[in-house]
Design a protein that fits this description.
The protein is mostly helical. Helices cover 76% and strands 0% of the residues. The chain has helices at residues 2-19, 24-37, 39-45, 47-58, 64-89, 95-101, 112-124. The longest helix has 26 residues, at 64-89.
Length: 127
Amino acid sequence: MWKLVLLCMVLELFEAYWQRSNTLMGSLAKSYYFYHKSIFLLLFMHIGYLYTLYISLAFDILNWPIFFILLLKSMDIFMKIHLVQKVFVRQEADDGLLLMLESPTPWWYYLIGVLTYPWLLYMAMGG
């Protein structure tokens, strides 16, 4: 079980690494890079989501921590796709949204998933 949780942490570190930027706009631009190549590539870059889905199916686990992980990650992915389309594809972003996206992001912001999702996975697996 610990190996599965540790792998989840490594995958979340990978996600934090590729999304890391000084602003949310920078992070969104990185998402747009993968979205522009293929939406499936963007989905694959969220490997922690796919891993959690695999764990849920392989071990027949569907309790509240797994459900919560999948819900949060799904909302995160859909929000990124929506913002990428609004800001980069259709270029319909208003000034308030652009101002928010250009605000500085604290260094620990991208590590929230690294701390949260492995802990929830550990709880889901009976830990």
